[in-house]
Structures are given as structure tokens and as C-alpha cells.
Amino acid sequence: MRQKSIGVFDSGFGGLDIMKGIVRELPEYDFIYLGDTARAPYGTRSGKIIYEFSREAVDFLFQKDCELLIFACNTASSDALHRIQVEHLPKNHGNKRVLGVLIPAAEVACELSRSKRVGVIATASTVQSKSFIREINKIIPDIKIYQQACPLLVPLVEAGEQNSEMTQIALRKYLTPLLAKEIDTLILGCTHYGILEAKIRKIVGRNVKIISESRIIGAKLKDYLARHPEIETRLAQNGKRTFYSTDLTDNFQKLGSRFFGEKIEVNKAELR
What we know:
Layout: E1 5-10, H1 15-25, E2 31-35, H2 47-63, E3 66-71, H3 74-79, H4 81-92, E4 97-100, H5 102-112, E5 117-122, H6 124-129, H7 131-139, E6 144-149, H8 153-158, H9 165-180, E7 185-188, H10 197-204, E8 209-212, H11 213-227, H12 229-232, E9 241-245, H13 250-260, E10 266-268
Parallel strand pairs: 1-2, 1-3, 2-9, 3-4, 5-6, 5-7, 7-8, 9-10
Helix pairs in contact: 1-11, 1-13, 5-7, 9-10
């Protein structure tokens, strides 16, 4: 019986850009979004803390009758997803599934790169985990991956400063070393970076392919559901969207609506 929703989790509101892309591809399904804005950003936290926060988010969304979860957060995908899958789900949530955004991005990078020189911009935690290097090299071992931590970008976007001169300066600082490596493909390895894509494009030029997760995850999820009818047949198809945040602020309402592409109404979430 179709009663369950698809959950989307991010440390803040950047994951709404991912959800927008998923909804565009799969508009008939019900979705529940959770942003842990009270404790964002995750990118500078320890792996232990990222796991604990992610586990609490998983429990919250499954209690809200989700059948399948997407970790829109790259930091959670790199630092917590595998442990969630092998330890927490079997003990607490039976056959439920949690998927990440990191592997789909790695797959597309391998498909697009001709020079085998791929750049990644991400949070410090994601860069330190070397998750993108690991997943890309699993597919094509001799691809060169050049990573750049971008600690200023998430706070700037969260503060609504994506159009500021400071953001422009930060982008040039972070992208210049990657361009010096002659990359032909760039992964935007954080959900917040999607809103900066046009500015990034102006800096890297037309010859660098940009992988924005908001444009690829929807198609990947659609394919996944086609291959897993035992999950798909339990998903409600009422086109309902519900939004939760751990910290209700005017900024989340305003910028969240901008990320999602339409006005959203946000409910308060308590994680524990």
C-alpha cells in the first residue's frame, strides 16, 4: 500500500536545491525535507559528531513514515553514510534504505572527464575524508583528482551573501589552484554550491564541465526506484512536500524558498 514518503536530509537548506532537482524528475511522490540548521555547518565538525547528528536525522525521518532517505549533505554522505548503512539501519530500521549523493557525482565525473583530471570543491571534512578520491578511483583508478576545501562558502551562502564581493573573492581563491591543474571537470561537492554555479561558471570558463548534484540525483533516484519495485510500490504519490528545520528562522524561510524555487512553509524539528 502506497503510504510512505521519500526523505531528504541536509545540514542546512542547501539540500533544498537537491530536492528541487529530485521533485522535478519525480513530481508525483511525497517528500519530507529535514535541515539541521541549528547545528550547521557540519563541514568543520569531527566524524564522530557528524555520525551522531546524521543518526538522529535518520531516526527522525523514519519516524515520519519515510521509506527511503537521501543524504543530500555531502559531509554526511562521506563521514556517516556507510556506518549508518552497516550498523544503524540493520539494528533499528529493518529494510529501510539510506542513499547518498557522493557516488552518483563520482560516476558522472568518470563519464564526463576526457583528460582524466577532475577537480572537487567541498567542505574541509569532505576533503579530509578523501571520499571523492576513493569513489572515483574505484571506477577509473588512474584519474587524477584535485580537491579544494572551501570553508568560507557555506557560511557566506547561509548568511545570504551569495552575491557579495566577498563570495566572489573566495570563489576565485578556491578555484584558481584547480584551474592551474588543468582540470576538465569540476564537482560541486557541497549542496550549498549549487546556488553559486553561475558565478563558478564565469570563473572556470566553458571548457570545464560542472557537475551540480541537483541536476543528476533526480535521474539517479528514478533509475534506482525502477530497479527496486519493492520500495517504489510503498511510496505515496500525492505530490505532497513537507519541510522541517531544527531552527526556524526568517532566513531559512527566505533562502530556503529561493533554493527550492517556490515558497515553502517550515515546521520545527526536534532531534535527539
